[in-house]
Design a protein that fits this description.
There is one protein chain. By secondary structure, the chain is of the alpha+beta class. It has one domain: Glutaredoxin (3-Layer(aba) Sandwich), CATH 3.40.30. It has helices spanning 7-19, 27-32, 38-45, 72-87, 103-116, 121-129, 137-146, 151-158, 161-177, 198-203, and strands spanning 51-54, 61-67, 91-97, 184-187, 190-193. The protein has a five-stranded mixed β-sheet with strand order 1-3-2-4-5, sandwiched between helices. The two termini are 18 Å apart.
């Protein structure tokens, strides 16, 4: 389990309060409210566009993955996470950007969040992780087109300054909970750093 509320995490909380005006959670709630688990309070701290969600919002099981589009293990576990949601009606998966592997990771994270402003974030997210082989500009353009995204609007939304703030915030949160790489998971309240097999995930569900 991770170390709760260390100095880095406190600095993250202050960042949330001072920088994320769209968050619906206060400093007092995030630090001291015991009525809601930490992993759900982290979700409360992120704007909707910063989260890629799959599955029913009222599901009793929540899987959170901090991920990077150039992470091979993130790509490997992606279809397994979708299968879990499709096989059960009590699970939702929420993918959160943690682009740490390259500058290209940050570019893709910005594009997917921008697509989320058109309610196409999951479509593009899934399409990118479904790309065979390496991600190229041509394959990315094909994914954008396949996701039926308005390219003009996507370009405009990519320029929103709040997108950079969302990525900075989600990566701060990942670092604060102890994520040393990708993928990093919360499976309900269980913190797991690194790749985890599908059956292990299922064993941690309620």
């Amino acid at each position: 389990m991770f170390k709760s509320f260390n100095l880095l995490f406190f600095s993250i909380i202050l960042f949330i309060v001072t920088q994320s005006a769209s968050a619906d959670i206060t400093l007092n709630e995030l630090l001291f409210n015991k009525d809601r688990p930490l992993h759900l309070k982290i979700l409360d701290a992120l704007p909707n566009e910063a989260k890629i969600e799959y599955g029913p919002q009222n599901a009793k099981n929540t899987i959170i993955e901090f991920m990077d589009y150039f992470c091979g293990y993130c790509k490997k576990i992606h279809p397994e996470l979708l299968k879990i949601v499709e096989e059960r009606n009590d699970v939702r998966v929420i993918f959160i950007q943690h682009p740490i592997l390259s500058e290209s990771s940050k570019v893709l994270a910005k594009i997917v969040i921008a697509a989320n402003f058109q309610n196409k974030g999951f479509d593009l997210h899934d399409s990118i992780f479904s790309i065979s082989g390496s991600i190229t500009q041509k394959k990315l353009e094909d994914s954008i087109n396949k996701s039926e995204i308005n390219n003009t609007q996507l370009t405009i939304d990519r320029g929103r300054p709040e997108i950079d703030q969302m990525i900075q915030l989600s990566s701060f949160l990942a670092s604060g909970i102890g994520a040393r790489g990708t993928p990093t998971f919360f499976i309900n309240e269980e913190f797991i750093g690194g790749f985890v097999a599908k059956q292990q995930i299922i064993s941690l569900l309620k």
